[in-house]
């Protein structure tokens, strides 16, 4: 069991090593994590406190983080109960991996710095060149060095030089958004060198990381995965390597097959991987257990917030994001998700504040551009929004959500070809982005190409089967004019209902479709459910009237007069033609209820013509007369 | 009903009141009162009715019980009902016709000694006289009789220093000049253990002093702590008290250290986001610093949370002011004044918004209203003076600014303006004196805010042909702001007059360079 001090020493040395190899973002990540570790309450006790004492009560200093924990879930249950729930839910398989209770973490030895390299002066120069982004010079200086560190930096510098050239070519040939064949010209030679090094066993984890990236760029994904796994197994603190691995794990199968050592960094990886695979509950579980150690980690907080957003728990996610922003006001990373959330909630003021703030912080970052674009989109200035999305994409062409959102903007502007292009780019980058598939479907539906649309909706709902909106879209597609495949529509609506569709469209449509198809029993069932839901949410509207009207008629036809009367009386609350219909129906019901009279007696009653009755009768429409007839006949 | 039964019910009523179950309290109180018809029980019933917002009924009960005139408490409660019903004249009549002299001393021989109905013994009670005085003040204020209101507020504070509400009214609505404030504070009689309160009060009054009162006091407390153990620990706890910190922030605002002020208030607002005074200072600081984004968010939140408060509308006005949409700003400032006419910042803001657009008449109107409503607010008078100055009406300007100085003699801004007026009236010697006084009065270290004063001083010195002094003043100004055009021009001209043509040319060039720069920007 590792104590906090162990974590700290590991991270400290890892950050140094990563920085030394110019892996800046990984170094940044490690350093952030290092700082997020709280000082031990009593430095004298080297042993880590047992699990129970980690609860925030015993740590006066931990009050902030415990607040941050309980706040997001505060609506439903307090933090501690959640923690308990997650613990118990985590079951035995999970507990072995929790850092606090964890017994079975492998401790990976920190690679010893080979400081004996006599050429460290040259290395220093190369690193300085590298830091000034003069990659080829750096590589050249290191040309004759053979130390592992030097070899790595040389290869890395060459790789980056190639990448830089590739980007330039892209723009020179095709403009900033072109799809060109430009490739990194260094890849082949680098791959050859690294593979021979690997065979000779003369390669360290950093080299393996680079080799993994190169393999991925060359398209050898399986080998890339193997190599990256080797890399993280020998040096687990390189977050960039984990991220590369993450981008290669496109399905749960691949993820489960990874042969990873059980290091605590694996938990961070798994949390992110589950996030990518939309297993948000698992992500929350992992984050929860990690947060017990890394109490002040913004990375974990951001993961939690993103997962909550993925679960559409917007309010709770917002609280977490606010907390993050309070701790780190100039953060840009993951703030684009926050802006999406604010957009979805239509929090205009908060989004405006965020947009203005990131504009001042650093306006040439893809995240900032995306946030500003969201801001303009919410203001209805779609052209400007597109402009900023394009800027975001210029800065990072693999920025997935920007492509998707830009597609949405083009849809708003009714520019379908552009929208389709944007969505296609998004699914090219990441075929798991259901929003892009959904957008494609929507666009094709707009172009009245329902079969295309259906195909894309199917892709979307395959990726996100729990999202009712996707099923609704599909059902509407089946239902609409050229197809009219009502049976299929019914299936989709049923799925939507099973996904807890909140707006009640599905139930209503189901009822309507069933009644159109003549399945009045089922229709009645769904109308009833719809009614219950509307009652529960205190909604009113034409759907309500329709449901009540149908139920009355249906129940009357079924001779369940008392129930029918209940619904009919409710109809009386509405003004307009419905009221009159209801009155006549009610009258019919009363008559029917008072024992099925013979037609002659009814006739007499009519003849006796109570004035009140006459007035009512005069109001009845032809349809109601027909109903009367039905009653009489029955 | 038996006595113990009644006693149990009394306890129940008290409990209901503390749990805010007013209807139950009224119900049971009525039963108790009916059973005993004891004045104390009637008082309890009336109290329950008052808390249950049934003011007319409470008033009727008190009136019909016929003891209302005999006991001050009954009368006070009845007057409170009338206050809630906004029947101010009736309210004053109910409180009796005591007189107050101009020092806030009450003379009322008739007031009968109150019979203490529900004396808890242990708790410190606010003197009922103070409460009555405060209510009188409020009624007079509502009747727009500010002079009487002020006197009664003073009387309230004097009869019981713990009557904070009265002090708050006096301070927040600028009813007293600086001098009056300090004399009031010194006349208050505190028991020895209540020394901490006197400390806090002295922090609360306006902050134009040269030294930072709050920090000095806090320092004192910390230093004294080891030796005097009796009262200080309590004071030490108060070190992080929001009110005190807000005062501290306000102090920094007054000396123009807006960054420090903003830092303070931001910190405070994360702890207590609804602290109104702090919010106000925060708004002002954000405006000075041009943080329009913060203003925007704050204004949005405020208007969402308190649409009925003037400060929310004021915040929106500030936002528009800071992004230079003065029309909108004016609209919202005037909305703030219509929501609450006794909110001083809105009037001043409204005046400033007019003044920026050079609509002198309208601006004067706003400032005059502010000056009338808030006799202790020297800014209004000062701004009137500044408006007169802009219309080249220097005599009047001087009068008004001198009046402002009488209200608040320690604000350096006043002296600066006096200097400017004197300069315009070609009384350069006087101008130099005024400017020097300004610099003496600047509380903290010099910052960019006082660069114009230095330039003004230098101009005046130049006019007096004290060239060397002028040069040194100009140079001092340039230390504070390296881009001061007028300092460069003045410096060049001075060297010109000194026949030092080389230096003159250098500075003339510099000035031209910066003019061009600002032209292109």
Strand content of chain B: under 5%
* Poorly predicted runs of 5 or more residues of chain A: 42-103, 597-634
| Strands in their spatial order, largest beta sheet of chain B | 1-2
Q: Give me the secondary-structure category of chain B.
A: mainly alpha
Structure characteristics:
heterodimer; A: 634 residues; mainly alpha; Serine Threonine Protein Phosphatase 5, Tetratricopeptide repeat; 34 helices; disordered C terminus; B: 521 residues; 29 helices; 1% strand; elongated; repeat (chain A); Cdc23 domain-containing protein (chain A); ubl conjugation pathway (chain A)
List the helices and strands and how they pair.
The complex is a heterodimer of chains A (634) and B (521).
Chain A: H1 4-20, H2 24-36, H3 63-73, H4 79-95, H5 120-131, H6 135-141, H7 148-174, H8 187-200, H9 205-218, H10 221-234, H11 239-248, H12 252-257, H13 264-276, H14 280-291, H15 298-310, H16 314-327, H17 335-345, H18 348-362, H19 366-378, H20 382-395, H21 400-412, H22 416-429, H23 434-446, H24 450-463, H25 468-479, H26 486-498, H27 505-517, H28 520-537, H29 542-557, H30 561-571, H31 577-593, H32 599-608, H33 611-619, H34 622-633
Chain B: H1 3-18, H2 22-36, H3 39-51, H4 55-64, H5 72-84, H6 88-95, E1 99-100, E2 106-107, H7 128-142, H8 146-159, H9 164-172, H10 178-187, H11 195-204, H12 213-224, H13 232-237, H14 242-254, H15 258-271, H16 276-289, H17 292-305, H18 310-322, H19 326-339, H20 344-356, H21 360-373, H22 378-390, H23 394-407, H24 412-424, H25 428-441, H26 451-463, H27 467-480, H28 485-497, H29 501-520
Antiparallel strand pairs in B: 1-2
Helix pairs in contact in B: 1-2, 2-3, 3-4, 3-5, 4-5, 5-6, 5-7, 6-7, 7-8, 8-9, 14-15, 14-16, 15-16, 16-17, 16-18, 17-18, 18-19, 18-20, 19-20, 20-21, 21-22, 22-23, 23-24, 24-25, 24-26, 25-26, 26-27, 26-28, 27-28, 28-29
């Amino acid at each position: 069991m590792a104590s906090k001090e162990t974590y700290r020493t590991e991270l400290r040395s890892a950050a140094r090593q990563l920085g030394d190899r110019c892996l800046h973002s990984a170094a940044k990540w490690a350093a952030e994590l290092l700082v997020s570790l709280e000082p031990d309450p009593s430095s004298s006790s080297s042993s880590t406190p047992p699990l129970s004492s980690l609860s925030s009560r015993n740590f006066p200093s931990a009050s902030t983080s415990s607040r941050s924990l309980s706040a997001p879930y505060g609506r439903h249950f307090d933090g501690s109960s959640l923690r308990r729930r997650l613990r118990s839910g985590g079951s035995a398989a999970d507990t072995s991996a929790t850092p606090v209770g964890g017994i079975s973490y492998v401790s990976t030895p920190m690679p010893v710095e080979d400081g004996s390299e006599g050429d460290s002066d040259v290395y220093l120069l190369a690193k300085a060149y590298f830091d000034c982004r003069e990659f080829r010079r750096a590589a050249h200086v290191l040309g004759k060095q053979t130390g592992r560190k030097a070899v790595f930096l040389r290869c890395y510098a060459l790789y980056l030089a190639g990448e830089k050239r590739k980007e330039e070519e892209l723009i020179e040939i095709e403009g900033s958004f072109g799809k060109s064949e430009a490739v990194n010209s260094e890849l082949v030679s680098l791959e050859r060198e690294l593979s021979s090094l690997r065979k000779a066993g003369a390669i360290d984890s950093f080299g393996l990381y680079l080799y993994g990236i190169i393999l991925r760029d060359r398209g050898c994904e399986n080998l890339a995965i193997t190599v990256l796994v080797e890399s993280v197994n020998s040096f687990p603190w390189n977050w960039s390597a984990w991220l590369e691995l993450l981008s290669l794990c496109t399905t749960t199968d691949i993820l489960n097959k990874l042969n990873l050592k059980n290091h605590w960094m694996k938990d961070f990886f798994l949390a992110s991987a589950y996030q990518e695979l939309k297993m948000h509950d698992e992500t929350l579980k992992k984050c929860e257990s990690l947060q017990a150690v890394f109490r002040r980690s913004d990375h974990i907080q951001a993961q939690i917030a993103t997962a909550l957003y993925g679960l559409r728990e917007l309010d709770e996610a917002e609280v977490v994001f606010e907390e993050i922003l309070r701790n780190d006001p100039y953060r840009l990373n993951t703030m684009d998700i926050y802006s999406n959330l604010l957009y979805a909630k239509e929090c205009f003021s908060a989004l405006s504040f965020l947009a203005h703030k990131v504009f001042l912080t650093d306006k040439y970052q893809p995240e900032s551009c995306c946030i500003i674009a969201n801001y303009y989109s919410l203001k209805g200035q779609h052209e400007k929004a597109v402009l900023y999305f394009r800027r975001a994409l210029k800065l990072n062409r693999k920025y997935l959500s920007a492509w998707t959102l830009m597609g949405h903007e083009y849809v708003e502007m009714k520019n379908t070809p552009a929208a389709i292009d944007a969505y296609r780019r998004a699914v090219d980058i990441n075929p798991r982005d259901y929003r892009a598939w959904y957008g494609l479907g929507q666009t094709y539906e707009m172009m009245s190409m329902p079969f295309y649309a259906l195909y894309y909706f199917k892709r979307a709902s395959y990726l996100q089967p729990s999202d009712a909106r996707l099923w609704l879209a599909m059902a509407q597609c089946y239902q609409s004019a050229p197809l009219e495949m009502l049976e299929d529509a019914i299936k989709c609506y049923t799925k939507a209902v099973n996904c807890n569709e909140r707006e009640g469209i599905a139930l209503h449509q189901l009822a309507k479709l069933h009644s159109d198809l003549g399945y009045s029993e089922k229709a009645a069932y769904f109308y009833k459910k719809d009614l219950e839901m509307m009652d529960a949410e205190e909604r009113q509207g034409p759907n309500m009237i329709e449901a009540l009207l149908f139920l009355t008629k249906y129940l009357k036809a079924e001779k369940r007069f008392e129930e029918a009367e209940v619904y009919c009386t409710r109809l009386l609350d509405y003004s307009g033609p419905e009221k009159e219909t209801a009155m006549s129906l009610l009258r019919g019901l009363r008559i029917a209820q008072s024992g099925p009279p013979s037609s002659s007696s009814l006739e007499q009653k009519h003849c006796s013509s109570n004035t009140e009755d006459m007035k009512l009768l005069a109001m009845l429409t032809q349809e109601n007369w027909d109903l009367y007839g039905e009653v009489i006949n029955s | 009903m038996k006595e113990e039964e009644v006693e149990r019910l009394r306890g129940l009523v008290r409990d209901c009141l503390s749990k805010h179950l007013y209807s139950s309290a009224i119900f049971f109180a009525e039963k108790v009162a009916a059973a005993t018809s004891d004045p104390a029980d009637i008082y309890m019933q009336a109290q329950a009715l008052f808390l249950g917002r049934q003011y007319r009924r409470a008033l009727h009960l008190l009136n019909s019980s016929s003891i209302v005139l005999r006991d001050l408490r009954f009368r006070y409660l009845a007057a409170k009902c009338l206050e809630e019903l906004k029947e101010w004249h009736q309210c004053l009549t109910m409180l009796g016709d005591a007189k107050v002299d101009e020092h806030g001393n009450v003379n009322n021989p008739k007031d009968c000694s109150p019979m203490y109905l529900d004396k808890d013994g242990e708790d410190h009670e606010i003197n009922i006289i103070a409460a009555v005085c405060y209510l009188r003040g409020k009624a007079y204020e509502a009747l727009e009789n500010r002079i009487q209101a002020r006197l009664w507020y003073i009387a309230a504070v004097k009869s019981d220093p713990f009557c904070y509400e009265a002090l708050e009214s006096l301070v927040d609505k600028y009813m007293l000049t600086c001098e009056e404030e300090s004399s009031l504070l010194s006349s208050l009689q505190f028991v020895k253990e209540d020394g901490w309160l006197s400390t806090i009060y002295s922090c609360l009054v306006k902050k134009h002093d040269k030294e930072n009162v709050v920090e000095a006091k806090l320092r004192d407390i910390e230093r004294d702590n080891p030796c005097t153990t009796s009262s200080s620990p309590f004071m030490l706890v108060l070190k992080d008290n929001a009110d005190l910190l807000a005062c501290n922030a306000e102090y920094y605002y007054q000396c123009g250290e807006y960054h420090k002020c903003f830092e303070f208030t931001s910190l405070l607002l994360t702890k207590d986001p609804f602290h109104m005074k702090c919010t106000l200072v925060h708004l002002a600081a954000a405006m000075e610093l041009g943080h329009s984004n913060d203003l925007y968010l704050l204004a949005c939140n405020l208007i969402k949370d308190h649409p009925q408060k003037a400060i929310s509308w004021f915040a929106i006005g500030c936002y528009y002011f800071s992004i230079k949409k003065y029309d909108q700003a004016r609209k919202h400032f005037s909305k703030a004044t219509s929501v609450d006419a006794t909110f001083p910042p809105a009037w001043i803001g409204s005046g400033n918004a007019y003044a920026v657009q050079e609509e002198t008449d309208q601006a004067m109107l706003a400032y005059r209203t502010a000056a009338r409503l808030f006799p202790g607010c020297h800014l209004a008078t000062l701004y009137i003076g500044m408006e007169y100055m802009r219309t080249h009406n220097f005599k009047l300007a001087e009068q008004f600014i001198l009046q402002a100085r009488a209200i608040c003699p320690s604000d350096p801004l006043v002296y600066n303006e006096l200097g400017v007026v004197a300069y315009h009236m070609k009384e350069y010697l006087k101008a130099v004196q005024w400017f020097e006084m300004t610099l003496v009065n600047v509380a903290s270290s010099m910052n960019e805010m006082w660069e114009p004063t230095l330039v003004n001083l230098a101009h005046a010195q130049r006019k007096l042909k004290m060239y060397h002094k002028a040069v040194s003043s100009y140079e001092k100004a340039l230390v504070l702001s390296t881009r001061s055009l007028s300092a460069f021009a003045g410096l060049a001209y001075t060297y010109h007059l000194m026949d030092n043509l080389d230096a003159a040319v250098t500075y003339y060039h510099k000035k031209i360079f910066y003019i061009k720069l600002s032209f292109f920007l």
